[in-house]
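User: Can you predict the 3D structure for this chain?
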Amino acid sequence: MRVAIVSPNPANNSGGVERFCHTLAEVIGRLGGVSSVVGVADLDKVTHDLAITNGMVSRRTTAPRIHVYHGCWVDHVRLGSRTNDYSLPWKTQFLVKGAAKEIWAGAHAYRVAVSAPTAAEVEHWYRLRVHRVIPNGIDTGTFAIGDRDVARKQLQVSADERLALFIGRAEARKRPDIAAAAASRAGYRLLTAGSGSVAGATSLGVLTPTELRTWIQAADCVLAPSDYEACSLAILEAMATGTAVVTTRVGYVRTLVDEVPGYLDLTAPAGDLDEFTRALTLLPTRQAAVAAATAYVRAENSLERFAAHWSAAIDDVMARTSTVSG
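Assistant: Here is the predicted structure, written as structure tokens:
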């Protein structure tokens, strides 16, 4: 099986979709296939039995095609841009153009979504059936359960300092302002890992996966107050290490809370600073829920589980193609 995976930026492995493309390529190799991560303009230059396109990046091909929704542009703009001051006409035009691209990208393809809420959004707004939900997979070997004291000694961090970590680009949708305010209220020093700076926080810059893993293990908690996420790699990686994540009830977190009800207390509605701070203050008494979430993520979001999901999806789409051809 030769698979072409179309990435928004095949030479880059830092963004969520780009990381997904390279992870999927690795997994397809484990399954015995041969994969190429290419840009949309180069799809026809590589021989392939199956194409996998992503987000707004798509191209028609004579081979069977799977299209992956890493979110829904309508709700990304509608819910994730509440903090900016762009005019309503500009937002509407921005929303419509992006939605049109996502509708075209998913048409005439076998459609996969990275979370059940994303599938519901695509079906609601675009009237396109999502054939399968496959949550993101993470490397649970790299993001292993660690010892906080050991990690702090390695990083030369005081054992008794209260540390919170914000991971990702410091963009408005991810609400670093809420992370900073909640950390201050609850008595934590906030660190950030990623591009950009956050007022009131100490920047660690962009870290390698190993460096990030150690900082996550050293932190008391990771703060993820995004207004919109589909299935955040940063949240999954942090949870896999055993570190608590205080987050908003968006995207895949809603599925997690359904499966681990005790984790509800460590989540808050998007955009609600008071509730987010309340969740952070409950952290010391919710360690059983943290352990349960860690176990769930390590089982359900491992690369082995991810590979099994994708193997089934590929078998499904190829069987459908064979039936149509016959």
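Residues 2-137+302-325 form a domain with the Rossmann fold fold (CATH 3.40.50.2000). The mean pLDDT is 94.
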